Every structure is written in C-alpha cells, then in structure tokens.
Amino acid sequence: MASAKQPQDEIDYKVKFTQDYFNPKLCKYDNERIDIILLDKKGSPLLYIEAKTALPNAQAREKALAQIVLTNKKQSQILNHLALIYKENDNDILEFIDLLDDSVMFNNDFHWESETPSTPTRDAIDRINDRLKKSAKIIKYINDEIKEFYANLLKREDLEIAITFKNMITIFYAWKEALTFKNEIKNEQSLINLFLVDMLNNTKYQDSLKILGTEVGSQKPLIREGTDLNAFNIEVSESKQEVKFIDDKNEKFYTIPNLQAYKAFWDKYKRPPAKDEFLKILEESHLLYTDKYRKDTGGEYTPFFFVSEQNKILEEYCKDSNTNLSDYIIYDPCCGVGNLENQFSQEIKKQCYLSTLDSKDVDICKIKEFENVEQFDYLANDKEPEFTHGGTELTINEIAKREKKKLMIIMNPPYQNYTNYQGKRENKAISFFNKVVKLQPEVIVFYYKTEQMFSEALEAYQKSGLKIYSHIFSTAQTFNLSDWSISQMIFSKNFGDEINDKTFTAKRYERDKIGFNYVKSYTYDLERPSLVKEIDKAIKENQKGMILGQYSYLNSTILVSNGGFEKADKITTENLKYTLLSKGLNFNTHHQYFERNDYVLKGKVSEIPQELFRDAIVFSLFFKGNLFSNKPIRESAIVRGGGGQISCS
Is residue 520 in some structural domain? Predict the structure, then answer.
C-alpha cells in the first residue's frame, strides 16, 4: 500500500525488485495507492503487491497482509490474487496470496469503510488474518523462484514450480530447512532418500521408466542408493496434523509433526516430477550429499559416466584378450554400495563378490541384487573374506579356481593414511592395492589420485609386475569434489605397457552437457627435476647480499623486516626474486589441477621464460602472505601474521 510518506528505502526496494524479477514495462507504481500493480499483456491488473523492506516479526507480517487486503477492497476492480514482497536474510521474498473464495473480501467482520489501509486497526488486522488462514493459500517464493512464478502468472498457467534436475539442490535444502522430523535423522543417506520419496508424492515410477540397474519395461522396484523408493507410502493425517513416511520393507516410519508447514512447503511445487527429470535427479542425487559426509563416509559415489567408461574399456580389453566378462570372477574389497559393478548385467552380477566395512552397505548391495556380499574389514589383518559358495565357505581365489575362471579386481579405495594392524602408518589406497596383488588377479581396475603417479604409488605399481592397459583421468569436480585429479587405471598381467619410473601417459576426460568426453592425451616426464625443489635450492644458494627478512615454508609467507638474521630461510637482495617466484607458483592453474605442485611442476629455473618468471614474481605480490614490518620478527608471528606486522591480503 503506497503512502505519501512511504520511506525512500521502500521505494528503492520495490523499483529494484521489479527490475530484477518482473517486466518493468508491465508494472505501475503507487497507482490507486498500491505499491506495485502487475499488468497482463493487455494492460489489465493481474496482481496487487504490497512492498516492505523487511518484516521483522509476525505482527509486522500480519499488518502487511491486512494492508494489501484493505487496499484491494478500495479498488474498483477487486482481485483474488495479491502479494507481499520483502527482504529476509538477504533473500528476496514474494508471498503469493491466493484468495480461494469470496469470504476474505466480502464479509461483515468489521467496518471496511472506516479502515485506512496505511494504518489498519488491530481489530481489522486480527479479523483479516483469521479469514486468510481459513480461505486463502499463501505460497512463499524465494529469489529465482520468483522469476518462474512470474512467467507462469503472465501465461495464466499453473503457478506450481516444476521439480527438475536444475533446481533439485535448491529445493532439497529448502525442504530440510522448512520441515522437521519428529526424531532427528542424522544419516544423510536416509534423509536424501526420504526427500526423493516425498517429491514422488506416492507416485510409483516403474513400467516405462528406465532406472539404473533395471531394463526398460521391467517391473523391478525403483531403487536409489540404499532405498527401494516404491516400498514407501506417505500418509497424511488431518486429525493428528502430521505426515508419516512408512517403509513397509524395513518396518520403519518417519514423522513430520507439522502438517501446515508441510502443505505450505509443497504448495508451490508440482509433484511428482516428469519421469525424464526424475531419472536425471536419481542419477545425480549424489550432488545432494555434503562434502563432510562424502569425506567421512565415502558417500561420494563413483559417478555413473566414469563407471560407464570403465565398462567400455573392459569390453575392449576382453576383445584384445579373446575373453568375455563372463570368464571372470569379479571381486571388490571396498565396494561401498556397489556402484562400480552396478551397471553389469544380472548374469555378471552373480559372478561379483563384494566386501565392505559398513553393514548398511551390505544391505544396499543386496537391494541392488548382488548375491555375494560380506561385511569385512579388509585391512584389519592379512586374511581374505570368505563367501558361501555351493554350501562351502571359500575365499575369492578358491571360488575362481572352483569355477575355472580368471580373477578381476575392481575397486575405488579410501584415499587417506591410516595405522595398520601392525601399528605402522600407511597409505590406505596403496595398502588395498598391495594386498589384492597377492591374489594374483588377471586384471585390476583401480581408482586413485593421479598425482600419486609421481610418488609412492608408482613404486607399488612397478613392484606388482603388472602392465597398464588403460589410464584415464578427470578432475575431481567430476566427483563433485575439488580441483585435483582422479585416475581410473586398468592393470593386466599380459596386455598393456610396461610400468616404468621415467614416463607415463594418461588420457584426460571431462564432463560436459553432452556426456563424458575425451579431451587430450598427456605424457609426463618423471626424470625431470621438481621445479619447486629447484627454486628452493636457488633460494638457499643465493643468500648473499642485504638481509631483508625471512621466508616461511609453513604457509608460503614472505616476511620483509629488519629481523630474521639468525634464520636459515633468509630473504636477501640476491634471492628475493626466487622467494617471490616460489610464492607466485602457488597460485598457477596447474597447481589447482593437481593437489601437490612439487610433484607436477617439472624442470629447472633456467628453463622458465623470462616473461613468465617476471609475471610469477609480480603475481605473488597481489596475494596474502606478504608481511612488512620495522620490528624484529618473532617466530610465533610467522604463522599467525601477528607481532605488529602489516599484512597485505
């Protein structure tokens, strides 16, 4: 409701709001004392809007609702669609008020003519809000949702927002924030599956929808990691004012005790999603997991397209080796939820033997119709798990021997250090590799960080005596992680290139809108020296001249001061350019692609072109970690940047 005394900030806000979300040509301001009138393409009023910079509490919101209703009543053309706009926690909000019947605008609860929209009485505010609760639907749109709402409003189409792959993450986080379960669900996997079930709204997708692990037209249940979605039913209880998710298969239920909040949330979305969109959502639902969950539990499942490429290469390998996949017993000692094997046919799945640390993952693998799954801590001792085979407990080698088949290992192990059962610190991934090598498999499919080809992993690969048949890699962004690189390597007893410590070749793949595509082949020269170490050597060999300060290798900090005379890592007029060069290299794009640039940056200082040399030096001056002081440097200040120094950041 406009007023002659409307604050300037409200005027500015409503103008900016219309520019950001509406077509300004179809907007009128302050006409008939209405903040904003949205017009249709014929110039007729479509929506009356009350604009506020903020609604700090429930009372302010109730007053604003009363104001827009009273304003509507004063118009010659009374609408059944109204709205509030305001700012909330740096978000733009539009509350759409859909008057379901005439009872809000046409009643005798109070004297309409005596009320002024800018200053409604308390009685009018209370009575209007009571009517709205009973006879209106209020839907809250946030930021970009407002654009979609407006587009649908102009077309006079259904105002519900379609659920798609593009907006699934936004909707999921809004769902988590708006709805609270009676008992807190700490397991992210369970919560995500409930969200997927909820968006289905009791729809059972099977029949013509192709879901991973099923065939077109099959009647198999819809399965998402760990959950048979079709096993769920949603019950809405008006009497108890609650919503209950019932998992018949596992005899569990999950309750949302606030039916009003539940309805208010889903009112603005169209459920269920279109089948093709839901398939995309299922395939990419790993994006809903938090980084912490992926890191702590391995919940970042190997992406579908990386596994598809794995299986294409295995097909090529079988042709080259004159074999079929059916000629192999396949073993994964750290299978997680079985994603590396889930695209195999049902017949091949019967030849897959999986072990995993987590008992819940065993259940998930069995849902995916893997018959041979055991819970086993593979690095806890030097034993191998045993599987039931023909009524007998056998190890994987004994099974392969009995079946007269070759052994293939497929695994994506954890990527961190650990203390083994003998009390030694080891790299977990390489420990997995070294242990399965003892099984003497014909083939190993191994996922690991590409950078390890420059260090300890290469030694393990050489000692294995295997050849490398295929090596592809992609940024870890493929896995929704950071910028470093992950490799998929296929080792073979008989086919491929010899592994050496001089060079290695790998094919880079990246994902785009079309798919997972080959980009370029790289050959890395392992005999060239580490450029980072060469620069470090130059810093230490050129410490003559005036002492300017010291260099902290702990956090790439350069301290220029009148202190640091006693330190070994002196910055002098002779080596300053090398310290700046070292610091500048920490921000180059190659370093972002690999986790440790001292592995990857190869060559000598003398080989760096002068232009690049100068650019790196200048580049380093624009980043944090350059500290200048006229006081002696305290050792403790180097790390925290304190002690009276001025930090350039």
Answer: yes
* 596 falls within a domain: yes
**Phi and psi angles of residue 521, each rounded to the nearest 5 degrees, phi first:** -105, 135
| Dist. CA 117–CA 167, nearest whole Å | 38
pLDDT tens for 345-383 read 888 999 999 999 887 788 778 867 789 999 999 998 889
Q: How far apart are CA 535 and CA 454, in angstroms?
A: 19
Asked if 310 and 354 sit in the same domain, the reply is yes
Counting every residue written for the chain, the total comes to 649
pTM of the predicted model over 0.70 = no
Structural domain of 609: 531-648
- Answer with the one of 525, 549, 584 that is the final residue of a domain: 525
Residue 188 has pLDDT above 80, yes or no: no
- pLDDT, tens digit, 9 for 90 and up, residues 492-540: 999 999 999 898 999 999 877 667 889 899 888 888 888 888 888 898 8
| Residue type present at position 140 | K
Do 118 and 264 lie in one domain? The reply is: no
The span from the CA of 409 to the CA of 466, in Å, is: 13
Task: Select from 259, 422, 392, 408 the least CA-distant residue to 331.
Answer: 408
Task: Categorise residue 625: left if φ over 0, alpha if ψ from -120 to 50, beta otherwise.
Answer: left
Last residue of a domain, one of 261, 288, 315: 288
Asked if the structure places residue 260 within a domain, the reply is yes
At position 400, the amino acid (one-letter code) is A
CA dihedral for 316, 322, 327, 333, sign (positive or negative): negative
Whole-number pLDDT of residue 527: 86
